[in-house]
Amino acid sequence: xxEYLLVLLAGLVxxxxxxxxxxxxxxLGYGFSIAAIGVMLLILFRQGMTAGVAVQCLLLxxxxxxxxxxxxxxxxxxxxxxxxxxxxxxxxxxxxxVPKVALWISCALLYTMQTSPVFFRLLNGDxxxxxxxxxxxxxxAGLLLEGAADLQKSAAKKRDPYRFVDxxxxxxxxxxxxxxxxxxxxxxxxxxVGSLHGALQWVVAAVGFILIVFVMxxxxxxxxxxxxxxxxxxxxYQKYVKTVPILLPFVPLYxxxxxxxxxx
Length: 264
Fold this sequence. Notes:
- The chain is mostly helical.
- It has one domain.
- It has helices at 2-15, 28-44, 51-77, 79-94, 97-114, 116-123, 130-159, 176-191, 198-231, 235-243.
- The radius of gyration is 19 Å and the shape is globular.
């Protein structure tokens, strides 16, 4: 299946920045890899591609460029975030080449799994159906939510770089950007309904979604641990974390720090 190998190659090339700093495998490399996969799908399946699936590919590109661009600008412009990255750079320099290669390949494989519902629809020659339209709408909603959350956080950090963010969407959940991410990939999964053929395609698509949800909860745990360390003695922060859910709106889950199976 040469089409899949080319999609995987796109993920490998654009996530290779992680060899400089390992967290780039699943930050900058993540965003730009998804964009590259979207471009690759448009090129590989340009003949016979329907409008709805093309919109999905464009949403993948928009998602990846927005995420990668936001993370890159934050790193360049935010002194506070640079302080967060300094320990990660030290850890990356101490990490051996074998763990880095394992991370690199694992991340690229994950990115192909996440985008697999779109890939399989194109590979199977299926056109635009109701689930594609529904999935694209959900993807767009997730993209808008994630983008709005990042903009609100950037604005809040400009006002006070060393205070936690509890305004705008951050009144709904403490990690609205991660929520937007999960909504986006839920839309991708839904778009595959009616097009995924056989158990293998379903397993690949479902595992890709489950893994990104796991990554989002893991990221929420890392953020919670860091914020507890930075703001734990602030009474306003203590009130905030006890009244605003960490990730899922209207679900009274206020902390995931104790769940050690979520890698920190």
